[in-house]
Inverse folding.
C-alpha cells in the first residue's frame, strides 16, 4: 500500500523534553511538509522540504527542527524551546515541488506535553 | 497579506444541499483546494479548481469560484451523515512555492 505513515498516533511527553515525530512516505514524492493544527484553527506550516538535504522554514518554525536525509523520511523534532507544543501534527507530501500537485496527508500525531 | 476565512459551523438536514463558503485575500492564487478532515484523522483532498476556472463539478460536489469577490464555495448535493466532518479550503499562491494557506475550517454537522 502506498501512503504516508506517522507514528505514533498519540504521544505524551513531559515539559522540557525534546520529542521526535516520525513521517515516512513510499509515494516517491519529492516534497514533504509539517503542519500544526490547533482547535478552531487552520493548519499552520512549520517546515517544508522540496528535495533531499534541503528544507525551509514555514510560518511557525521557532522551537522545531527537521532533517531530510532520505527522500522518504522527514522527521520533526519538537524542542523544549517550543512554548506551547501540545497540538495535532500533520505531515504531508506532494509529487513535485511547485505546480498544482495536491498534498497528500498522513493520519497525524497528537502530541500532549504536560 | 495572505488570509483565508471560513465560517466555523454549518448544520444541515440529511438529503439537503450543503454550501460551505470561503474567502481569500491574495489575488495571485493559482490553485484553490477543498480538503475534508474526519475526527482524529489527516486531511483528504476532495477537489480543487484552477484560478482561471469558474466552476468545477465532481459527482455530488460543485465548486464555484468568484475571482472578482475572491470567494470560493463548495456545494455538497444530497448531504449524508458520512459527510459530517471539518472542511478546509486552501489556496496555493504562486507557482514557485509549495506553500498552502489554509482556512480555519468549517465543521459540517448532518442530522437525520
Amino acid at each position: 500500500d502506498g501512503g504516508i505513515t506517522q507514528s505514533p498516533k498519540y504521544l505524551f511527553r513531559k515539559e522540557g523534553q525534546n520529542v521526535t515525530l516520525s513521517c515516512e512516505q513510499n509515494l516517491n514524492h519529492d516534497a514533504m511538509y509539517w503542519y500544526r493544527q490547533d482547535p478552531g484553527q487552520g493548519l499552520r506550516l512549520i517546515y517544508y522540504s522540496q528535495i533531499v538535504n534541503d528544507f525551509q522554514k514555514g510560518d511557525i518554525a521557532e522551537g522545531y527542527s527537521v532533517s531530510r536525509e532520505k527522500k522518504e523520511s522527514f522527521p520533526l523534532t519538537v524542542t523544549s524551546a517550543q512554548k506551547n507544543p501540545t497540538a495535532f501534527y500533520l505531515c504531508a507530501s506532494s509529487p513535485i515541488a511547485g505546480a498544482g500537485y495536491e498534498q497528500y496527508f498522513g493520519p497525524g500525531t497528537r502530541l500532549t506535553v504536560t | 497579506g495572505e488570509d483565508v476565512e471560513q465560517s466555523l459551523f454549518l448544520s444541515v438536514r440529511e438529503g439537503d444541499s450543503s454550501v460551505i463558503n470561503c474567502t481569500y485575500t491574495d489575488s495571485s492564487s493559482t490553485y484553490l483546494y477543498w480538503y475534508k478532515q474526519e475526527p482524529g484523522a489527516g486531511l483528504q483532498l476532495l477537489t480543487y479548481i484552477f484560478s482561471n476556472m469558474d466552476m468545477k463539478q465532481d459527482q455530488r460536489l460543485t465548486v464555484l469560484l468568484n475571482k472578482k469577490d475572491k470567494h470560493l464555495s463548495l456545494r455538497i448535493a444530497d448531504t449524508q451523515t458520512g459527510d459530517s466532518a471539518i472542511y478546509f479550503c486552501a489556496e496555493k499562491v504562486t507557482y514557485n512555492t509549495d506553500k498552502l494557506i489554509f482556512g480555519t475550517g468549517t465543521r459540517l454537522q448532518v442530522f437525520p
About this structure: The longest strand of chain A covers residues 43-51. The mean pLDDT of chain A is 91. Residues 29 and 89 of chain A are 19 Å apart (CA to CA). Chain A touches chain B at residues 4, 6, 31, 33, 35, 40-45, 48, 50, 58, 90, 92, 94, 97-100, 102-108, 110 (CB under 8 Å).
